[in-house]
Amino acid sequence: MDPEAYIEKSAEQIDKIIDRYFGGGGTELARASAHLLLAGGKRLRPTVALLSAEAVQKGGSDAAIPAAIALELTHNFTLIHDDIMDGDSLRRGVPTVHAKWDEPTAILAGDVLFARSFEFITLSGAPDNAKVRAVSMLSRTCAELCEGQHMDMSFEDRDDVDEFEYLEMVRKKTGVLYAASAGIGAIMAQGPAIYADALYHYGLAIGTAFQIQDDLIDLLAPAEKSGKDRASDLREGKKTLISIKARNKGIDLKPYRRDLSDSEIDGVVTLLERSGVIREVREVADDLVRSARENLAILPESEEKQLLLAIGEFFVSRGM
Ligand code: IPE
Ligand code: IPE
Ligand code: MG
Ligand code: MG
Ligand code: MG
After folding, report:
1. Mean pLDDT for the chain?
2. How far apart are CA 44 and CA 314, in angstroms?
3. How far separated are the first and last CA of the chain, in Å rounded?
4. Which helix (H) or strand (E) holds 95?
5. pTM value?
6. In a mutational test of the pocket of ligand 1, which residue from 44, 229, 240 has the highest number of ligand atoms less than 8 Å from its CB?
């Protein structure tokens, strides 16, 4: 099956569950924490979790459903806080939580989703020892995520960040949540530990590639397509593989650290395309997806394994 069609179908099912739990309104804070959740999103982390569960144990995804929702809640917590940190006003085509409400409400809305992630793991039908392992993996993941976000923010004030440091930052801010999605799916399905480990490393590689593609989308895709502020990374002085490779070729992006018009952004894109930066960045993402394939080699053959492989390819071709 085509991965994009599969992802869409999976997202519809996940949307229904999220709607059941979070669509009921409630207090102002409950509505603020449900705002982004109900605005859609690709639901890639729960989809990866459920496919991973099936890939290690046929029928294993049933016990993984609440944990899959937990991963989407964690993701939405990070998005709400990330939009405050990055000063963005558009996400999933709707105003960000701090733009629609205010920063204190957005901080608390994120905290609510962070807390409820752990509650959702406990709601799953897996045995307690599997839930304890999943809670442990998710809490370590959240701590790493914060480290990654802290690196991302602190890099804004530096001009000497290298590709190695960038990759470590991205592994932490984005890779580990995909790693935990695949790993927790496998744990909830009670697959062998070596499969859970292989899936964790697959998730780490495709998640890192996913962030590199997100950085390309930030620059190349119109806001109408991405649903997010365009060139936010340029405006904020983010250190991405794009900006690092540009700097190494003598291209100074500092003058673009401000609000930019679409035609100004198009000018930067032309410069980066001509100098080969965009192609080189794509090659790094492609290499990561290739390495992710190797991680899955030990898994038994199944339709779900093939879909996981295809999703890796989709991660680096999406969104343009
Ligand atoms: C955006 O994630 C944040 C990053 C880690 C780059 P997604 O692109 O998965 O966002 P949604 O969930 O589809 O909105
Ligand atoms: C965010 O990276 C990663 C998170 C852990 C939230 P970005 O700041 O690039 O994500 P977007 O582009 O705002 O979605
Ligand atoms: Mg951001
Ligand atoms: Mg950010
Ligand atoms: Mg981004």
Report:
1. 97
2. 11
3. 21
4. strand 94-95
5. 0.98
6. 44
